[in-house]
Amino acid sequence: QVQLVESGGGLVQPGGSLKLSCAASGSIGSIYTMSWYRQAPGEQREWVAHITSRYTTNYQDSVKDRFTISRDNAKNTVYLQMNSLKPEDTAVYYCNAEISDRSTWPRAQTYWGQGTQVTVSS
Q: Which residues contact residue 14 at a Cβ distance below 8 angstroms, ignoring those fewer than 6 apart?
């Protein structure tokens, strides 16, 4: 079994910073692309950023130059450093990863974290 566990959400002031973490655990063979998504109340879940196994990154335009996605393969963890936060960044943030279970390697499947609330408010 493979699971993702998120942490790091909270309440911050506009202009503040927050760093989210999501650690994968279980019977991991390989972790490929890891991503962050977010979902605001009444909105669809949207892609925020991703980082490939070769550390190539991409960002949604609205967070580009403010957010940084990174990963630590030794810790099976993906991070999202969020700077210059705006109220419109308020959402539940979810991590997502393409992971091959050791038992079915190299076949990969998508896993989701449980989500962590980020609230940006004065």
A: 85, 86, 87, 120, 121, 122
Q: How far is CA 92 from CA 17, 47, 52, 61, in A?
A: 16, 12, 22, 18
45 backbone φψ class: left, alpha, beta (φ>0; ψ -120 to 50):
beta
Distance of CA 81 to the CA centre of its chain: 10
CB 113 within 8 A of CB 2: no
- Interval 77-105: pLDDT, tens: 999 999 999 999 999 999 999 999 999 88
1, 37, 61, 109 from 29: Cα distances, Å: 11, 23, 32, 11
Q: Which amino acid is at 49?
A: A
Q: Which residues contact 118 (CB under 8 A, 6 or more apart)?
A: 9, 10, 12, 18, 20, 38, 82, 85, 89, 90, 91, 92, 93
Single-letter amino acid code for the residue at 115:
G
